[in-house]
Amino acid sequence: MRIVLLGPPGAGKGTQAAVLSREYKIPHISTGDILREAVKSGAGIGLAAAAFMGKGELVPDKIVTAMVIERMGKTDAEKGFILDGFPRTLNQARELDEAMNKIPSKVDVVIYFETSSKTVINRLSGRRVCKTCGFNYHVKNIPPKEDGVCDKCDGVLFQRPDDKEGTVINRLEVYEAETKPLVDYYAKQGILRKVSGDMGVDDLFSVIFKIFAEEKLA
Ligand code: AMP
Prior knowledge:
Bound molecules: adenosine monophosphate
CATH superfamily: P-loop containing nucleotide triphosphate hydrolases
Radius of gyration: 17 Å
Structural class: alpha/beta
Shape: globular
Strand order of the largest sheet: 2-3-1-4-8
Helix content: 40-55%
Order of helices and strands: EHEHHHEHEHEEEHHEH
Strand content: 5-15%
CATH topology: Rossmann fold
Low-confidence stretches: none
Oligomer: single chain
Number of strands: 8
């Protein structure tokens, strides 16, 4: 089961990826998470990536693609994976196709989270993340029991710097210009399935579950 989740920031890809990963026992590969880890650890990739991420720009294709191909080659990804936040450019999509052809394998389905800008802005501005375990909350939709404290590990919740207003606008512009063309790219391959990113977590999971059944993936 080789899945790509495509859609704007704040569409709920990460939340669905986490649920799908648990359900189907395949890894959730989030380039955003891998890059944030690299920034935190001060690794070479992190140093190169931090400036782009801080401005809401894309990290260069070469860095991200190499990172994903390495991650996809690990044994836990042999049976499949869920890509969240990759590919984000046509160039990355072509590189992914090439890497899959070499295995040989292919992406089974691309789930496109079509999401209104109202939802996206609301989700991103209210998102809070646990500094320790990375669990995502929302001040209104998924509030923690105690303000600013993670229910799962008592870690401190914070707002991602790139979720602040100025950077969000840039991220959405970058999405429209660089990532949206992938909708067409995958539609032409006949593997694009559209869902509504405006739906709640459980309803959306049911829709995706049905798609996997229709595609005979589950
Ligand atoms: P995300 O958590 O997916 O919203 O990603 C956070 C940031 O990481 C993005 O705004 C980019 O700066 C960077 N990033 C994540 N995935 C990619 C990618 N596939 N290509 C380039 N940059 C990426």
